[in-house]
């Protein structure tokens, strides 16, 4: 990335979620159809909030409902394509699903032999099932594909190691494993009779850095991966076969130590979020805008097309554990909480925790 522009944002206009989760938020996901945001948390719940009035500049964020898993932590969550169902990935080795038209009623999908790290709905409907398929990635080294009408997975994909992160858009799915492999699936090329397998498996460009997060751009053309070493790599899901799938990587969430100019403090990249914003164009080239959230408590927004940092926001007092843009990139939500990067001794009762929302300043996309 090019040298960052000296553009520093403020937290003054951020809107807090009240009430918020009772423990650290593990993931944030916006509905693709409405200004509803889901937050999975270590307190064993997935919270759903309505931010519709905030989008119009009035009102507050309204809690809608929560999916309760009896104190078994949720590590991830996702809305289906219609925004009517929410799925949660749990440490109990199960996937829990709630229909938002019937809050409080949940169904459970069992099959994994270890905690489920991540879930994503993919746009690959089965016959008679318009909601699409649900994919779960686990520390048992598998991805499982579910048709929610059936109790057993319709397909199981064995990967090279435990699933650390996963994201998808449309028929594109990208998973990162503990052995630093990136598994890219083009599900649109699959048929009912074909076995599901990656279309490409590459080594993570974040060499010797544990994968923390993966994001797939809307439309599925690009992916990004963040790691514990304060770096992000960006690549194409269908690269030129004569070239590497990795386009470039860049440093972020690093700072020179106040004690010594020869020491650089490095912070994990805890989450990534692409903005679904394509209207602002320069000729025929649309901006690709991505936010990174770090262990240092900062949120940075990048113009990936120009390889520049647009703006950074100061820390609210704790690590940013999750973030995300809403469906039209007019709002941005983030979670503050302990990310376990410093071990259990630093997880104190007074560590800052909470959820907040900020309206997007369109100068980000300039």
Molecular structure report:
The protein is 1% helix and 46% strand. The strands form 9 sheets. It has a 4-stranded antiparallel beta sheet with strand order 1-32-31-30, with no helix packed on it. It starts with 14 loop residues before the first strand and ends in a 7-residue tail after the last strand. The model is unreliable at 279-285 (pLDDT under 50). β27 (289-294) and β28 form a beta hairpin. The protein has a single domain, classed as Methylamine Dehydrogenase, Chain H. It contains 1 helix and 32 strands. InterPro entries: WD40/YVTN_repeat-like_dom_sf, WD40_repeat_dom_sf, WD40_rpt.
Write the layout of secondary structure elements.
Blueprint: E1 15-16, E2 25-30, E3 36-41, E4 45-50, H1 52-55, E5 62-68, E6 74-79, E7 85-90, E8 94-99, E9 106-110, E10 116-122, E11 133-138, E12 142-146, E13 155-158, E14 163-169, E15 172-177, E16 181-186, E17 200-203, E18 211-216, E19 222-227, E20 231-236, E21 246-251, E22 254-256, E23 264-266, E24 269-274, E25 281-282, E26 285-286, E27 289-294, E28 299-303, E29 308-313, E30 320-325, E31 331-336, E32 354-359
Antiparallel strand pairs: 1-32, 2-3, 3-4, 4-5, 6-7, 7-8, 8-9, 10-11, 11-12, 12-13, 14-15, 15-16, 16-17, 18-19, 19-20, 20-21, 22-23, 24-27, 25-26, 27-28, 28-29, 30-31, 31-32
